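A student in our group prepared the protein record below, which I am reviewing. Thanks in advance; the entry in question is below.
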Amino acid sequence: MKRLILATLLLLTFAPLGAQTPEGPHLLFENPTYDFGDVPRKGGDLTREFRFVNDGTKPLVILRVITSCSCLKATFSKRPVAPADSGVIRIVYQPLKSEPGTFNKVIQIYSNSVDGRDVITVQGNSIEGTPRKIASEPEHDGEEE
């Protein structure tokens, strides 16, 4: 009988350590990073949708999204996301507004999640594209003038 009580107490003590639903709203991204790879600066805007789920117990509300660069624009729904439902934060990268070279941009998401603030990132390499042709000198036919 003592063993049964001890086993029950141990089970109840360590059971909460397993996978647990967060108490309150919780923002969970499928993948919080994205690599655009090589991006031509004059190739137009690039879009990436970051999908998330509210794996908490109460509705999740995205309050504000802050980007680290004017070359990024973010859009999101202001409607509450019910527990177990999903949503999307759309990021548009405008390479023309950024310097050439590698980039790693941070997007901060503020919500009523138990975490308060979450971070997603986009990265890549902004390239100038095809090199410009240099005007060649006129050809001479070998005669000196």
Helices lie at 2-14. The chain has a mean pLDDT of 83. The longest helix spans residues 2-14. The chain has one helix and eight strands.
